[in-house]
Design a protein that fits this description.
This is Antitoxin VbhA family protein. This protein is mainly alpha-helical. It is built from three helices and no strands.
Length: 55
C-alpha cells in the first residue's frame, strides 16, 4: 500500500480510538482492499454491511 494510504489508515484508526471505537482486523483489511482498488465501491459497501450485521 502506498505510504499516503498507510498514513491515512493510522490517522483514521487513531481518531476512532479517541472516540472510543476500535477497528477490527477484518475492517482494516476491507478498507485496504478498497484503497488499493482490489474491490469496487459497491463491493466495499456490501462487505461493510455484512461485517456490521455480524455484530
Amino acid at each position: 500500500m502506498k505510504r499516503t494510504n498507510e498514513e491515512a489508515m493510522r490517522y483514521a484508526k487513531a481518531s476512532l480510538r479517541i472516540s472510543g471505537m476500535d477497528v477490527s482486523k477484518e475492517q482494516e483489511d476491507l478498507v485496504r482492499k478498497s484503497l488499493e482498488g482490489h474491490i469496487s465501491d459497491e463491493d466495499f459497501i456490501n462487505q461493510l454491511k455484512e461485517l456490521a450485521d455480524k455484530k
